[in-house]
Backbone:
């Protein structure tokens, strides 16, 4: 093979790098597709992509409101401000005159209490409950 056709070692390193990057991106894509498939399979089936039945939606909102009503007053207020109104930890901390760390911990505790309440009252909703809390 003539010397002019032999690729310098730098090109071999780029080829290996390109292979590694494409391999890792392919794996990341497959993992993401698999996790999306798991989440979608856990959601209730709908006919031809129709929206969920309004009555079912309202009943789940009522259940969530019942669970929120069981929270202690301070945790309930934090849960409503952060999850339902979309305020940040800093905004809520300033409003309630406390630190963002306290807000974060109380919100985590409140979310855990809501999830525990819903799962204890309605065991069939375990996965749905987690999804509802993630969306809020």
Residues:
């Amino acid at each position: 093979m003539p010397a002019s056709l032999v690729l310098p070692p730098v090109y071999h390193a780029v080829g290996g790098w390109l292979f590694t990057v494409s391999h890792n991106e392919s794996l990341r894509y497959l993992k993401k597709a698999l996790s999306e498939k798991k989440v979608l399979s856990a959601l209730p089936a709908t006919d031809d992509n129709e929206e969920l039945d309004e009555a079912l939606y309202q009943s789940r909102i009522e259940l969530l409101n019942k669970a929120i009503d069981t929270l202690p007053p301070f945790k309930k207020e934090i849960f409503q401000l952060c999850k339902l109104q979309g305020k940040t930890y800093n905004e809520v901390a300033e409003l309630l005159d406390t630190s963002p760390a306290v807000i974060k911990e109380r919100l985590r505790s409140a979310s855990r209490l809501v999830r525990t309440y819903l799962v204890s009252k309605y065991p069939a909703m375990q996965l749905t409950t987690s999804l509802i809390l993630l969306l809020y």
